[in-house]
Design goal:
The complex is a heterodimer of chains A (274) and B (581).
Chain A lengths: L2 H29 L5 H23 L8 H23 L7 H32 L10 H23 L3 H15 L4 H5 L4 H14 L4 H57 L6
Helix pairs in contact in A: 1-3, 2-3, 2-9, 4-9, 5-6, 5-9, 8-9
Chain B lengths: L4 E4 L15 H7 L19 H8 E6 L4 E3 L7 E7 L2 E4 L18 H10 L14 H4 L2 H4 L12 H5 L4 E4 L4 E2 L1 H6 L6 E4 L3 E7 H10 L1 H22 L8 H10 L1 E6 L7 H6 L2 H7 L2 E3 L7 E16 L2 E8 L4 E2 L1 H10 L8 E14 H8 L5 H8 L3 E2 L22 H9 L8 E5 L8 H9 L7 E7 L2 E5 L18 E3 L6 E3 L9 H5 L6 E4 L7 E4 L7 E4 L12 H5 L5 E4 L4 H8 L2
Parallel strand pairs in B: 1-23
Antiparallel strand pairs in B: 2-9, 3-8, 4-7, 4-9, 5-6, 5-8, 10-15, 11-15, 12-13, 12-14, 12-15, 14-16, 17-19, 17-25, 18-19, 20-21, 22-24
Helix pairs in contact in B: 2-8, 8-9, 10-14
Classes of the chains: A mainly alpha (274), B alpha+beta (581).
Chain lengths: 274, 581
């Protein structure tokens, strides 16, 4: 078996065994009329704190705290197991009370953002790898400006060489905005190549009206439109890969604080349950 | 008000001499000793006088009886001349603990944390921006035996049953490791009190350039001393009786292909089409021609290829210790007729080979090799795996290489990435471009990452611009001060910031563009500029594999998705394991 497959199998078996153990223990406690919710609460808050610690590990790379990859594996499987513990803790019902509902919503959002992140981090990199060019995210503004300048230069050269303004007019009407502005938010969330296809089709339609020197420049514009679209696609995917983490982290800290508050209040008003 | 710039004197080659105790009288005495007595001082330029070299690139070291002068396996940057006394060259491996190699102590948890806490907020801040003599030798960087003596107790007992050679006054040793950027091949012990002159390789190179006799002498030593060691390491010859090995050594032919300073042409080579590039590579053995014996790769890399359509298809590369032409040689031995070569062998950059003629194999080698080993070797075109390469867990010497597709192989060979022992390979199918690796590197290195997460790609694999700690680190060739060199204990190529004069020679020599020149600041954040020219003072920086930190390279440990790995690209077995995870 390949190393990754073997790791996946081992971690899955351990997680399922752990979850089954906690579930069995909870059922056993309830069957003898005990209170398992405090114990599942401890396990849950312990899991949430451990999951939050992964970010601390990332902030301190000089420390020999195993590898980030091992931490991520633990983060993923403990995160998945925590969903079952959460279900056991709330009794598989919607909790009541403002604080409890807030914590449940925060937990669910953090969990879902984690799942989305897991899916994106597994599916988006191969899409990025298929592109012909690898771009560093911080350099995109510079590359975008270079493409815009090259497109402008190509059009100006075409006007100078042919004396005709057909390509220039098309550029001003359809391509200038495309090269100058970043894409809309919708594209970043769900990038499609419809605009690229549309522009290339229009450019193809315009070719019949172009002289030979313009045709040559038109070919260069075709290439630049494609490059710009590839760049936007790459930026959109990288933006998603970075963006989800902000959401996930942004939810983590309120969740940790609210959970601690909930635990403290639960102890204050335990009513002799412990 | 805070100074934005501070003017200091630009560092020079001999600001920090190799030995701080070399006096004029010592140099005068050296000039009365061979080989320096016969050297013509007029052949040395005014900027690089013979006296200057002796004063600044050499040091005289006293070695009491039993002390280790050089250890087998250490990376050496200097050669030695015996001035007085005698030394023993031990030709067989000694136990590492006997040789005083304690386990490497790395920074602990609290030291690492404290260092991170104390890190200045600005990048490239230096506590001691200008070289001071007392800082020139940093023991933890060099592990310098000249400053840290290791003694052997009861030398006769240790040497009992081992083969050793005595060297006397006037003889030179250690030149092989110094000139070829390779580990020491033998341990040398002082036999009685010995006085030695240690010459760092920059000085040795300059002396050789201007003294024909010394150059010829060292070349002869180089050929004589390295041959037996290499033959002994070759799997086919390991079991050979000493008498037969001597006979093989006597008949073995040395051949060199390509240019030793191959990096000078690497840019032009890269512009050629793959078809013409391979045809222009120096041909060592050609497919279809009669086999003339066995070829052993001594140093460098060679490409094995076969004609395919109008081009040549690469299907393996051979490195140090690997053999070519085995199957054909065995076939010729068995049939009595000369077999034709089924593949070609070409030099990649620079390669040293040893050729053992067929008649010698027939007479002294094959009759002494067990039939089952011959049978195994016959089924291969080459021995892909040796002690140095292909250490797959269950792989035996002579095993099949791991599966790596031809296109990836061609890419690695054409880009010369096979030179990299610790290349940063990134699996782009797994890399989320989170830059955790970059941040981890910056956090451990003066707030400035020592690599670029960018580089040549093949499919979904990328080799990033990070120092690969090459088998043949050509970056070391031109360094005038020896600031860039191998860490003796680990083999990591490191830059001594104190002796780097910022000349950019290493950065320009690196064919992979993996060394960056950076402007440095003092502790208050002011950029340092040269007092005379007002140009910024530069320092060369590159990946040092986080040797001072526990746990290994921070970049690899920081990658959450197992996308980034430091990999020996010269090792097909390890590469195959990684590709087929």
């Amino acid at each position: 078996m390949r190393p990754f497959a073997s790791r996946r199998l081992t971690n899955s078996v351990l997680t399922v065994a752990g979850v089954a153990g906690i579930t069995a223990w909870t059922v056993w406690q309830e069957n003898k009329l005990g209170r398992a919710d405090f114990h599942t609460g401890y396990v849950l808050i312990g899991a949430v704190l451990f999951l939050a610690c992964y970010n601390l590990r990332k902030k301190l790379p000089v420390l020999p705290w195993t590898t980030s990859s091992a931490w991520l594996q633990a983060h993923i499987y403990i995160g998945l197991a925590s969903a079952v513990v959460f279900g056991l803790h709330v009794g598989w019902k919607v909790p009541n009370g403002f604080l409890e509902i807030s914590i449940a919503v925060l937990y669910c959002l953090a969990f879902v953002s984690g799942i989305v992140g897991l899916i994106w981090t597994r599916t988006l990199p191969p899409q990025l790898a298929r592109l012909s060019e690898e771009i560093i995210f911080e350099r995109t503004a510079m590359i975008r400006a270079q493409l815009r300048d090259r497109a402008q230069r190509v059009v100006l050269e075409s006007v100078h060489a042919s004396g005709a303004t057909t390509l220039g007019e098309f550029y001003a009407e359809r391509l200038q905005e495309y090269f100058e502005r970043p894409r809309r938010l919708g594209y970043y969330l769900w990038p499609t190549n419809s605009l690229r296809r549309e522009l290339l089709a229009e450019l193809t339609a315009v070719r019949r009206y172009l002289s030979d020197p313009e045709q040559e420049k038109c070919e260069q514009l075709f290439a630049l439109v494609r490059r710009r679209d590839d760049l936007d696609f790459q930026v959109a995917l990288q933006w998603r890969l970075k963006g989800w983490l902000f959401v996930h982290l942004g939810l983590t800290y309120p969740l940790v604080l609210a959970s601690c508050l909930h635990g403290w209040l639960a102890h204050l008003f335990d009513g002799g349950a412990l | 008000m805070l100074d934005l710039e501070i003017a200091v004197n630009r560092p020079q080659r001999w600001d920090v001499p190799f030995g701080s105790d070399m006096r004029d009288e010592d140099v005068d005495r050296l000039l009365q000793v061979e080989p320096f007595r016969s050297m013509d001082a007029d052949r040395f330029p005014a900027a690089l006088p013979l006296r200057g070299i002796l004063q600044n690139d050499t040091r005289i070291t006293d070695h009491p009886d039993g002390s280790i002068v050089v250890r087998e396996g250490d990376y050496g940057h200097s050669a030695f001349l015996v001035l007085r006394g005698r030394v023993n060259v031990v030709l067989e491996g000694l136990d590492p603990e006997t040789l005083g190699r304690p386990p490497k102590a790395s920074q602990g948890l609290f030291r690492s944390l404290a260092k991170m806490w104390r890190n200045p907020s600005l990048p490239e801040v230096r506590k001691h921006p200008v070289a001071e003599n007392k800082l020139a030798v940093s023991r933890d960087q060099t592990g310098d035996l000249a400053n840290t003596r290791v003694f052997l107790q009861d030398v006769p007992r240790i040497l009992m049953g081992t083969r050793s050679v005595s060297l006397h006054s006037g003889e030179i040793f250690g030149e092989l490791a110094a000139l070829t950027r390779t580990p020491r091949t033998a341990t040398v012990l002082a036999d009685g009190d010995a006085l030695l002159l240690e010459i760092r390789w920059q000085g040795l190179r300059d002396l050789m350039r201007r003294t024909d006799a010394l150059r010829h002498h060292i070349e002869r030593l180089y050929r004589e001393n390295s041959l037996r060691v290499h033959l002994r390491e070759t799997p086919l010859l390991t079991q050979l009786p000493a008498e037969q090995l001597e006979a093989v050594a006597a008949e073995t032919v040395f051949e060199t292909y390509g240019n030793f300073e191959w990096q000078a042409n690497s840019e032009a080579d890269g512009e050629q089409s793959p078809t013409s590039a391979i045809v222009n590579e120096p041909l060592i053995a050609e497919e279809g021609l009669p086999s003339a014996g066995l070829i052993l790769v001594r140093a460098g890399f060679a490409r094995m290829s076969q004609r395919h359509g109008h081009g040549h298809k690469t299907f393996a590369y051979l490195g140090k210790g690997q053999m070519f032409g085995t199957a054909e040689a065995i076939e010729s031995y068995r049939s009595g007729n000369t077999a034709a070569l089924t593949t070609s062998l070409r030099a990649l950059g620079y390669v040293d080979v040893l050729r053992i003629p067929q008649s010698v194999l027939d007479k002294h080698v094959f009759p002494h090799v067990p039939d089952n080993l011959l049978e195994t070797l016959h089924d291969k075109r080459a021995v892909y795996c040796t002690h140095h390469h292909c250490d797959l867990p269950h792989e035996k010497i002579g095993g099949q290489p791991g599966s790596v597709d031809t296109a990836l192989l061609e890419f690695l060979v054409e880009s010369r990435f096979i030179n990299g022992q610790q290349a940063m390979a990134i699996d782009l199918d797994r890399c989320t471009r989170c830059d955790d690796c970059v941040r981890a590197c910056a956090a451990t290195h003066d707030n400035n990452p020592r690599f670029l997460r960018h580089g040549q790609r093949h499919g979904s694999y990328q080799v990033a611009h990070a120092c690969m700690h090459c088998v043949d680190p050509v970056c070391m060739i031109g360094c005038p001060t020896g600031a860039i060199g191998r860490d003796m204990a680990t083999g990591t190529v490191r830059i001594n910031d104190q002796t780097c004069i910022g000349c950019s020679t290493c950065a320009n020599s690196c064919p992979y563009d993996n060394i960056r020149m950076v402007e440095i600041r003092d502790s208050r954040g002011a950029i340092l500029v040269d007092d005379a020219t007002h140009q910024p003072i530069l320092k060369a920086t590159k990946c040092d594999l986080c040797v001072d930190h526990s746990g290994g390279p921070a970049c690899q440990r920081a990658c959450p998705h197992d996308a980034l790995v430091r990999l020996d690209l010269g090792n097909l077995g390890k590469l195959s394991q990684w590709v087929n995870r």
